[in-house]
Amino acid sequence: MKVKTYLVTDGKLVLEVTPVEKGWLTVRAPFHEAVITQARSIPEAFEMARDAMHELKEAAKDSRVELAKTAIVKAVRGKSVQLKSTRVRPASENSHAKNSLL
């Protein structure tokens, strides 16, 4: 039996909805490939897809922050090894460093 997939939109978001067993829908956002979720109705599908997109954005932001922190720590450690006589000042004492990290 061929599974039918439907394209639905609310005017802002396009979703691919596939009915699966026991009244559930598999929901994918074709323009946001990482978004895959499930719902019981079309309105819930839009709600779940938007929630998934929000969570993915937050996860990406957290990942970028962690990567930046790791890079800064590695850079500071590298400089402290190379420049043993140089004191690394906190950002509050060095306005240039504070602005460059924003």
Give the secondary structure arrangement, pairings included:
Layout: E1 6-9, E2 14-19, E3 25-29, E4 32-39, H1 42-82, H2 95-100
Description:
Strand 2 (14-19) and strand 3 form a beta hairpin. 46% of the residues lie in helices and 23% in strands. The chain is an alpha+beta fold and 102 residues long. The protein has a 4-stranded antiparallel β-sheet, covered by helices on one side. The chain has one domain (6-100). The protein has helices spanning 42-82, 95-100; strands at residues 6-9, 14-19, 25-29, 32-39. The longest helix has 41 residues, at 42-82. The protein is elongated and about 60 Å long.
Content of β-strand: 15-25%
> How many discrete domains?
1
**Count of beta strands:** 4
User: What kind of sheet is the major sheet?
Assistant: 4 strands, antiparallel
Quick take:
The protein is of the alpha+beta class and 102 residues long. It is 46% helix and 23% strand.
Distinctive features:
alpha+beta; 2 helices; disordered C terminus; 102 residues; 4-stranded antiparallel β-sheet; 4 strands
